[in-house]
Please model this.
Amino acid sequence: MHDRYGPDVLASPPAHPSRRGSRTVEAQQGLVVEEVETGWCGAVVQVETAGGMRVVHLEDRRGRTRAFPLGPGFLIEGAPVTLSAPATRSSQLPGRKGHGVTRTASGSTAVTGAAARVAATSRIFVEGRHDAELLEKVWGADLRLEGVVVEMLDGVDDLAAAIRDFAPHRARRMGVLVDHLVPGSKEWRVVETARRACDSRWVRILGHPYVDVWQSVRPARLGLAAWPVIEPGRSWKHAVLSELGWPCQTQYDVARGWRRILSTVRSYHDLEPTLLASVEELIDFVTVPPTESSAS
Model:
């Protein structure tokens, strides 16, 4: 399975090739480069300012795009280079009629005039409404184009039973996104039990390390340096709202707080890479054509 976001972010980074003799190259549209840390190879499609820094968007041969900080750390035909902003005014890939290529919130190339595809039999399952709403905001256009439906599990306490009920098979794949999937957590134990009881060819269970999907939104979007640390035993969402100085007494307060957080998300740039990697891999997994998956 192709990993759009590279290897484990916690793994030891590969050694940088020597930058001695590195030349500076303008990040012109169509220039093919390789990013050293991840091995991501793609053509330059856009240079922009995001989060207070200059980034370059590289599109791979499958049409997928990832952003990297502009500067050193790239290769052209094996030789180290430092990418600089292009001298031209526009740094967006031009369309056939001279217009910039439109991107979806997930960074994919937008397809205009295409109707939503009839829902496929494969599904992506998430724990709750907030997870589903976040996926819709960032990946909604992509999911509709692929005909992928996102369903809610209302928690993963009995994930093995949910998998049995869905009855996945070669033409009916099941992707699951789990909150707080870290070694030793309750969610980790539930997922390990479910994995042992299912056919991994047709089920992919991934997650992120955050207590709640709220934390996958970059704290800077809320003007924070970091999300508040909540001690065990407190309701995480209510406690976070309290720490932020927002109303926090009722479920309505929780819902309103989430809408306020969600409103700050404009695109994938505003989400943490761990969540991005898991969601992209699940979309890849459930959209594999049955004829291709038969070889799995």
